[in-house]
Amino acid sequence: MTYETLNYAVDDAVATITLNRPERMNALTKVLEAELRTAIEAAGRDNAVRSIILTGAGRAFCAGMDMDELEVLPPEDIRAEEWMRSYDMNRRADYQTRYSYFPAAPKPIISAINGAAAGLGLIMALYSDFRLASDKAVFATAFAQRGLIAEHGIAWILPRIVGHANAMDLLLTSRKIDAQEALQIGLVHQMVPADALPDAARQLAHRLGNDVSPRSVRIMKQQLWEAPFQTLGDAISSANTEMVMSLRSEDFKEGIAHFVERRPARFPGN
């Protein structure tokens, strides 16, 4: 499939999705939003893909919604059916909404944040499984400066990542923070020099694709995103069920075999 506003490439089991509107700092339009969802769903279904990298072309990751579209955006668009379709009918409804489909993707998503991540750009990074930042990255919620609110569930997810006080600060003040502060408060997992970011993201992607079981990664990603809605007993019960299935899996057999035989793993992914 060809895309108008992003680049999509698969190489060595890694799908790289690059938002490609550098002249507009990769600001979201309805076309880009739709293409991004299509690309992530395609990567999720592709058996040749084991991990996904999301990044931006030029000097920005994503500067949020394109202001030209925001000015004429109908208020009811926020709940339009086209954005709320199900990604995976076996997942909670919480993960079948406009941006929370990121957690429903069966492959880990790595946001390689190369520059500004504001508004919806920050939300996409938060819904990713890993956040690696260039030392030139800048973060802002921006909503309060536009007369908006904490949209798309950011009031739920941001405090779980950076804590209540930091979330209150970032949301209510709309102030910008640099990559160093983002690292200090736990907003990002790692900060690297700008020219090292692509390699750092690919190294992580390759580790997820080659060194560990894709089946384990898929199930554990689901466990971690489902756990906030579960009691401890529910989490244990679900884990016990999944453990039985994992012990019967081909990846478990390979996990034992490559350890005993002292060779690199060759996980089939099932």
TrEMBL record:
Annotated keywords: Lyase
Name this polypeptide is given: Enoyl-CoA hydratase
NCBIfam families, per the entry: PRK06210.1
InterPro entries: ClpP/crotonase-like_dom_sf (IPR029045), Enoyl-CoA_hydra/iso (IPR001753)
Organism: Advenella mimigardefordensis (strain DSM 17166 / LMG 22922 / DPN7)
Record's keyword annotation contains NADP: no
Organism superkingdom: Bacteria
Pfam families for this protein: ECH_1
Alphabetical list of SUPFAM superfamilies matching this protein: ClpP/crotonase (SSF52096)
Enzyme Commission number(s): 4.2.1.17
Gene Ontology molecular-function annotations: enoyl-CoA hydratase activity
